[in-house]
Design brief:
Order of helices and strands: HHHHHHHHHHHHHH
Shape: globular
Helix content: 55-70%
Strand content: under 5%
Radius of gyration: 23 Å
Number of domains: 2
Largest sheet: none
Number of strands: 0
């Protein structure tokens, strides 16, 4: 409790003094790059390196105050109305990748740079970027992502696919709330894909509970079991044995 109470102070730290000329320059550069992104494909990734650098400077210097905004998050919401995640990825690339790796982004692309940043964040100054940059050049994007995931977790990830379907704007709040609720139950480390799978498994289990297809019900329960922590898996099996006997 001592540490928590120390977070509260009657005299909060003063915000950094803004160099107005520099702040206006950076904010203008961000808007130029975002506008340029919509017009031109060539050299996209090298410009994104600059964008990540400028965004980090806006956050550190609180340049968003020049636009009478309340927070950096509100600043991102204006510039990235569809998703702020991309902005944070670009900032992570700038913060964690060594300069020599950032120079390669024109060839390998910022999405692979995002994966490299995960490794760099884990290894810090010991990150050996050369072999990983080589892999990023040679491998297709999805294969490289799985390679990084295997390196970070020690597990071979199963192949994945992107599935696209249209939803109406009125449906989005319900879908988002369902996925967020599933994430709270499963753990925030689970991807939105896993969360959606559990929502579908729950639906199928309920639909086939009475006079339904027992194979589908078994498959749904098996998927649930997979996501239980080790201790709870053991408890689940012991309960089954007790009921069976």
């Amino acid at each position: 409790m001592v540490c928590l109470t120390n977070l509260f102070t009657r005299y909060p730290p003063m915000p950094p003094k803004i160099n107005r000329k520099r702040a206006l320059f950076v904010l203008t550069k961000i808007d130029e790059i975002l506008a340029w992104e919509q017009r031109k494909e060539a050299e996209r990734d090298t410009r994104f390196v600059d964008l990540g650098r400028y965004l980090c400077e806006v956050r550190a210097g609180q340049y968003w105050r020049l636009e009478n905004l309340k927070s950096f998050d509100e600043f991102l919401a204006r510039r990235f109305p569809e998703s702020r995640r991309k902005a944070y990825y670009l900032m992570s690339i700038h913060e964690h990748l060594p300069p020599q790796a950032r120079k390669e982004l024109k060839e390998i692309g910022w999405t692979k740079g995002r994966e490299l940043a995960k490794l760099a964040r884990r290894d810090g100054q010991h990150f050996d970027c050369a072999p990983w940059v080589h892999k990023a050049r040679e491998m297709p994007r999805e294969e490289f992502r799985r390679e990084v995931e295997k390196e970070l977790t020690g597990r071979e990830e199963e192949p994945s696919e992107l599935i696209y379907f249209k939803v109406y704007k009125s449906q989005i709040p319900v879908i988002e709330q369902a996925i967020e609720t599933a994430a709270l139950m499963l753990g925030t480390d689970k991807s939105r894909g896993y969360c959606l799978e559990m929502i579908c498994a729950d639906f199928l289990a309920g639909a086939h509970l009475d006079n339904g297809n027992p194979e589908i019900l078994l498959n749904s329960i098996s998927r649930y079991y997979k996501f239980l922590p080790g201790e709870q898996q053991q408890t689940f099996l012991e309960n089954l044995r007790e009921k069976a006997s």
